[in-house]
Amino acid sequence: MEKFKQNPIVKKLGFNRIILCCVLVVMYIMFSILVPGFAGMSHIMGALNYAYFLGFLSLGVTFVIATGGIDFSIGPVMFCCGLISGYCMMSYGVPTGVSLVISMLIGLAFGLWNGYLVAYWTVPPFIVSMASMNMAKGIASVFTKTQSVSWPRSQDPAGWFRNLVKAGSFPTGMVLFLAVAVVCAIILNKTKFGRYVLCLGDNREAVRLSGVNTKKWEMLAYALCGLLVGIAAIFFVGAYTTVQPGYGDQYNNEAIAGCVMGGTSMAGGSASIAGTVIGVLIISLLQEGILALKMTKDVQLVITGLIVIVAVYADVSARRRKN
């Protein structure tokens, strides 16, 4: 195994990412055997629809976790973005394009709020995210008068935004998701912002003593996460139409599981955008396979929880060996 890991091609691609790709292929084959017709386009598109919004959530929280923080508000904030922007469109006649911008701005506002409290007020990230989660639910419920919001369907002229998810039978959402993932990878690995984000998670005090404004960069990591959450809301309503107040918690663990499974360390200082993408595809395929097997959503929650535990344990074990 060590010889395989030291292979130049394996080292370049990443051993962890190769294993994840193998897991993805094995899962697809297994579900195709267990469920007749699972290999058809309907199930593939079902998994992809889930992967788009979950992917943007995971990309965002990857930057936060890389700093050594955490954000459990991303799911409810996504629903808050979808509810408020959709309500503005359906009740006040706000144009579709403006509503999409509103969704991103709401996500960005929550990200800046979380980042400011964590970085400048030094409130623990766990407490901040729990408070923001409840705030997002409350604000959305008050704004929409506790009503669910249904966005325009594809037949409606205002429903043109659905082409962002699927244009005819072409999965445009996958192209856009991968394009954003590439941009995130460049930001994380090739820019000063990305280097500081990783350094914050690795050794915050050393970065601070070197004269870097750690508070600014930490807040920006949360702000970027919030912006991506606002984009995730657009892809959620593009795929599923209706948004209900008080929901979204279930996507927190799935998004975190996707990035941790992909190689992002919960202790911070190490992250992989490519790994996050593959992790998200595994979670999405698992969700579609469980539904195809006519199992309840609770089964997926149990499996996702186990995935998080295993991924974190593997990360902790790897750090112990390294030290």
Q: How are the strands ordered across the major sheet?
A: 1-2
Q: Any idea how many domains? A: 1
What is the CATH top level name? Mainly Alpha
Strand content: under 5%
How many helical elements? Answer: 13
Helix content estimate = over 70%
Which spans of ≥5 residues are poorly predicted at pLDDT below 50?
none
The average pLDDT value, as a whole number, equals: 90
Q: Could you say what the CATH topology is called? A: ABC transporter involved in vitamin B12 uptake, BtuC
* CATH-defined architecture: Orthogonal Bundle
Main structural class: mainly alpha
Question: What kind of sheet is the major sheet?
Answer: 2 strands, antiparallel
Task: Say how many strands there are.
Answer: 2
Any idea what the radius of gyration is? 20 Å
Straight-line N-to-C gap: 21 Å
Give, in order, the helices and strands: HHHHHHHEHHHEHHH
Question: In terms of quaternary structure, what is this?
Answer: single chain
Summary of the model, kept short:
This protein is mostly helical.
Descriptive report:
This protein has a single domain (46-315), classed as ABC transporter involved in vitamin B12 uptake, BtuC (Orthogonal Bundle). Strands 1-2 form a two-stranded antiparallel ribbon. Helices cover 74% and strands 1% of the residues. It has helices at 2-5, 8-13, 15-34, 41-66, 74-92, 96-119, 125-143, 172-190, 192-209, 214-240, 250-261, 273-292, 297-322; strands spanning 149-150, 242-243. It has 323 residues and is mainly α. The radius of gyration is 20 Å and the shape is globular. The protein contains 13 helices and 2 strands; from the N terminus they run αααααααβαααβααα. Helix 4 packs parallel to helix 8 (172-190), helix 5 crosses helix 10 and helix 9 packs antiparallel against helix 10. It starts with a helix and ends with a helix.
